[in-house]
Amino acid sequence: MRTTRKIITLIAALALLFASVVPAFAEGFSDLEGHWSQTFMEKLVEKGIMAGYTDGTIKPDKTVSAAEAFVMLANLYDLKDAAKEEIYKDYGDKVAELSDVSWANNQLAICMAAGIITESELKNITLSAEMPKQNLAVYMIRAIQRTEDAAKLNEAELEYKDAADITSKCLGSVALLTEMGVVSGDTEGNFTPKASVTRGVFATMLCNILDYLEKENIKLKLDDYLGLDTAEGILSSVANDAIIIRGMDGIYHNYAKSGTFKATVNGTEKTLSSSNAGNPVKIQIDEEGKAVTAAVTEQTNVTYKQGRLNTIATNTQSIKLTDLLTKDSAAYILTSAKITQDGKEVSFTELTKGAFLTLTIEKGTVTEVVSDTKEYTINGKVGPVKYDTTVTMAVEEDETTEAIIYMDLADMPTIKRGSLNITVDRLSEGEDIKVTVKGGEVTRIDTQGKDATMEGQLTIITRTISDTTWTIKGADGVSATYAIDSAAAAFSGETSIKLDTINPGDEVSVIVTSGVITEVTLKKAATPATDKLSAEILAVDPTNRVLTVLKEGKLTYIKCKNAASILDSETGKTLSFSALAAGDMIVAYGTYTDSTNFAATSIVIEIRH
Q1: Is the dihedral of CA 57, 61, 62, 64 positive or negative?
Q2: Rounded to whole angstroms, how far apart are CA atoms 187 and 166?
Q3: Was domain 302-372 assigned CATH 2.40.50.140?
């Protein structure tokens, strides 16, 4: 649905060219002989960077207008015709709207595509006026891809006598060009930031840039221009600040509108509304991921339906289509339809059940079918989730792109955290997920948790006045200790359980967020313990392996013959029964066999006497 982002290829030494000039005769220029800039200008002519006029002159003292400067920058790019066509298609209308020098429009479009000039700058600049030297410095820095480096010098202190006259937004660019040796002061030590620049001065600056690039072995290059990002599909909904479309793959995407967003319906500019939903739309997307334009196509007596192909009736050449969002289901006859599946024209019998279909219906007859059978994955972070009979979840693919997925609460897809099955409400906003979609339906969601997950045996539970920590030994034998949130969710499979029913010796899987356990899944209980008894040992019977304690004012006898483990909470070590002594504070896990007898399955020594 998306195309590759715009860029331009340039493998050439930087130069500034004038569109208004044409190659002169090889014998030289009538107005250049003996001029102070002769060496520089001839060097640029020799390299094919600059050319003279048809009258045999090169006009070294002619000043440069803004339009000429931008044309020079644009002409340095060696673009294929296909790339130029894409650029003119993307930027041509906008340039024509803002430019008052039509002869420079194509090159201005290239400058916009290359990021040399912005739309707002083009709107506010007088193209026929001369270009001040300090402004030219900014555009030159952009052309050589050093804008970020120039920004670091925005507070530089320059030695030019008139440095205070340099506008703050131009200071970094002037400083960087000075540092590179491209510009320097005049005989009086001034930069003259607001003065115009002649072709001869321009040639000098260009030659200095070429020398710098050669010395530093720098080659300027960008990638091939393939146009702005685009997205196509059926318009789903329109808001004041966003637009949602459903692609031919069945996936919904939400795009924020740019500040200059414009929409057209059948080529006429118009404000979009809910009445336009359900029609084909193509949007262009800027580098921030925002919709710049939206072109909607509407035709009288033509409607579009999208959904999953559930039933195929070969004898009648009919299908049943179900919209997974609205749950609407209907049958359609395809005897007159052109059918394309995964980009290839196919017959009715080749349609694949479970594919996502987009139907074009003219006066009640299906004329075209676009079928998509492929499986897609959406990688991103969990965004806001809304719960209803249909669960709506935003998936933030990156800082600028957001997919919207819809899931039937009564028929949810498999959701895995590692190897564990979880429910949708256990996903946390900001958590990394991978969503698998086929036929427009979410079939699986995979996640590893916000920060980390760990599986292993819970060996130690340490409680203090301020917090509780768990020590978990992984399968590799390495232990890790984490504080546990007192409100952490606890589950056994998909069933919610109480946190305090999880005991040392149990096999657990935990989600760790910012160093704190926020969710626990009991994978395997060490014992079928259902009761917990905390007390001080009064007596130890090593022969019968019985401990005597006082619990709620009466003697209770803890029988330890079947105790699976005795753990020291301080060290985490497994101890023998003989290590128990009167005065030890313990926690016994097991079951009461009667009011005074307790069958222990595990014991944790909290405090040793």
Answers
A1: positive
A2: 18
A3: yes
Q: What is the per-residue pLDDT for 14? A: 31
pTM for the whole structure: 0.51
Residue 537 is encoded by which pair of tokens? 């040992």
Q: What are the phi and psi torsion angles at 118 (to 5°)?
A: -95, 165
Tokens of 486: 């007192």
* Residue 442 to residue 422: CA distance in whole angstroms: 15
User: Which numeric CATH code is attached to 452-524?
Assistant: 2.40.50.140
Q: Give the pairing type, strands 452-463 and 468-474.
A: antiparallel
Q: Write down the residue that tokens 């003697």 correspond to.
A: 555
Calculate Rg over the CA atoms of the chain.
Answer: 37
At 396-442, the pLDDT tens digits run: 987 767 999 999 988 899 998 766 677 888 787 888 899 999 999 99
Task: List CB contacts of 182: < 8 A, sequence separation 6 or more.
Answer: 140, 205, 208, 209, 212
Query: Three-state DSSP class for 473?
Result: strand
Domain ranges for the chain, please list them: 38-131+196-215, 229-296, 302-372, 375-447, 452-524, 531-607
Would the CA dihedral through 510, 424, 375, 434 be positive or negative? negative
In the DSSP assignment, the letter for residue 20 is T
Encoded tokens for 395: 């998936």
Nearest 5 degrees, angle CA 230-CA 235-CA 237? 120
Main-chain dihedrals φ then ψ at residue 580, nearest 5 degrees: -75, 140
Maximum C-alpha span of the chain: 120
Integer Cα distance of 136 and 124 in angstroms: 16
The answer as to CATH 2.40.50 being correct for domain 375-447 is: yes
Kindly provide the b/e burial profile for residues 127-165, where b requires at least 16 CB atoms within 10 angstroms of the residue's own CB.
beebbbbbbbbbbbbbbbbbeebbeebeebebebebbee
The residue count of the chain comes to 609
In whole angstroms, what separates CA 78 from the centre of its chain? 31
CA angle 279, 1, 277 (to 5 degrees): 15
Which residues of the chain register pLDDT less than 50?
Answer: 1-26, 222-223, 529
The pLDDT assigned to 454 comes to 86
Question: Under CATH, to which class is 229-296 assigned?
Answer: mainly beta
Written as six digits, the tokens of 402 are 């957001």
Residue showing tokens 């026929």: 128
Supply the pLDDT for residue 468: 86
Strand pairing report for 452-463 and 441-447:
unpaired
110 φ/ψ angles, rounded to the nearest 5 degrees: -65, -40
- Residue 113's identity, in one-letter code, is A
Report the alpha-carbon angle 144-152-136, nearest 5.
Answer: 40
State residue 451's pLDDT score. 57
Chain-centroid distance of CA 223 in Å reads 21
What is the spatial distance between Cα 243 and Cα 253, in angstroms, rounded to a whole number?
8
pLDDT value of residue 527: 58
In 3-state terms, what secondary structure has residue 332?
strand
Q: How many other CB atoms are there within 10 angstroms of residue 241's CB atom?
A: 8
pLDDT in tens, 512-557: 876 788 889 999 887 554 688 899 999 999 999 999 999 888 889 9
